[in-house]
Amino acid sequence: MSNTASNRTEAPVLAVTSGEPAGVGPELCAWLASREWPARLVVIGDAGLIASRLACTGVAASVQPYHPAARPQSGILEVLHRPLAVPAQAGRLDVANAPYVLDVLDCAIDGCVSGHFSGMVTAPVHKGVICEAGVPFSGHTEYLAERTGSARVVMMLVGGGLRVALATTHLPLAAVPAALTATVLEETLRIVHHDLQRRFGLALPRILVAGLNPHAGEGGHMGREEIEVIEPVLERLRGEGMQLIGPLPADTLFVPHTLARGDAVLAMYHDQGLPVLKHASFGGGVNVTLGLPIVRTSVDHGTALDLAGSGRADPGSLHAAVELAAQMVAQRGAPA
């Protein structure tokens, strides 16, 4: 047996969910067989589907059932089989397979909670088709929070040398000010601070906090959320020793000399922080869920139905998500 095989046997085991079967997820997972990883990867999904998408990638590998006691080998994609409800066609959504998508997710979550898997990496799902099946589903993040009993979770994207967390996520812009309460902001900052320590190994993380309004409110002339909500929370948490810088005007927060002062950014809403990060890293960014009892990373893109089955989908974001998950798992096991 080669040293590589031995090292992979001893490596942490990461579950990789294959996502929406009509999208690019299954073939992105197939691309994982094209190289070695610092973890043992177990793709969860329909084995026949994964094998068919592997064929379209041109990767010289084969699919084999996952057996915990087996020794992983190069060129073998280990698949924990979960059967499709109905055959899947690339690029064509089928509501009948929505329960399959959730079953794949549940299998990974249960394996992480039980300790069988060290962490999970998720390929994209299609929210709309799951909702059409009668299951209210707003996204992986919320689903994971509910399934793990996590009171609050935080979305953070990593890539292009940036870490950007969000105080609010998928809300209409008009709903953001009311949602940005002192409680929400304080709990979010505590989670970001805690997980930067626990998952990223930063003993005293520095967090750059954006204001909500233009020019961070201009002293109250362009909005009072900074004065009435954000600044009091920051001052209180600084009193506990947190390194919080802000509130900063968002239009100048992402310049190099300001970013150099921090380890992560907390943006107040989705389109305040993520356009900058995705400009810097699209195709290689990673979505991380903070505040969970398990490690979870994901791609930074959607199902790309138009590319499914073509062999042309870019696996860069999934590769980055696997690498980051492996690093986070290793950090979790490192001495404090």
UniProtKB/TrEMBL annotation:
The terms describing its cellular component in GO are:
cytoplasm
Q: Spell out the Gene3D superfamilies in the cross-references.
A: Isopropylmalate Dehydrogenase
Chief subcellular site? cytoplasm
Q: Which positions bind substrate? A: 140-141, 278, 287, 296
Needs which cofactor? Zn(2+); Mg(2+); Co(2+)
Free-text cofactor note:
Binds 1 divalent metal cation per subunit. Can use ions such as Zn(2+), Mg(2+) or Co(2+).
Localization in the cell:
Cytoplasm
* Keyword NAD attributed: yes
Domain of life of the organism encoding this protein: Bacteria
Q: What class of enzyme is it?
A: oxidoreductase
The UniProt entry's GO biological process terms, in alphabetical order, are: pyridoxal phosphate biosynthetic process; pyridoxine biosynthetic process
**The protein's Enzyme Commission number:** 1.1.1.262
Q: Which UniProt keywords apply?
A: Cobalt, Cytoplasm, Magnesium, Metal-binding, NAD, NADP, Oxidoreductase, Pyridoxine biosynthesis, Zinc
Molecular function as annotated in GO: 4-hydroxythreonine-4-phosphate dehydrogenase activity; cobalt ion binding; magnesium ion binding; NAD binding; zinc ion binding
Could you tell me what reaction this enzyme catalyses? Answer: 4-(phosphooxy)-L-threonine + NAD(+) = 3-amino-2-oxopropyl phosphate + CO2 + NADH
- Self-association or partners: how does it assemble? Homodimer.
Q: What family does the Swiss-Prot or TrEMBL record give for this protein?
A: Belongs to the PdxA family.
Q: What does this protein do?
A: Catalyzes the NAD(P)-dependent oxidation of 4-(phosphooxy)-L-threonine (HTP) into 2-amino-3-oxo-4-(phosphooxy)butyric acid which spontaneously decarboxylates to form 3-amino-2-oxopropyl phosphate (AHAP).
Alphabetical list of PANTHER family matching this protein: 4-HYDROXYTHREONINE-4-PHOSPHATE DEHYDROGENASE
- What protein am I looking at? 4-hydroxythreonine-4-phosphate dehydrogenase
Source organism: Pseudothauera lacus
**According to the entry, what is the taxonomic lineage of the organism?**
Bacteria, Pseudomonadati, Pseudomonadota, Betaproteobacteria, Rhodocyclales
This chain is encoded by the gene named pdxA
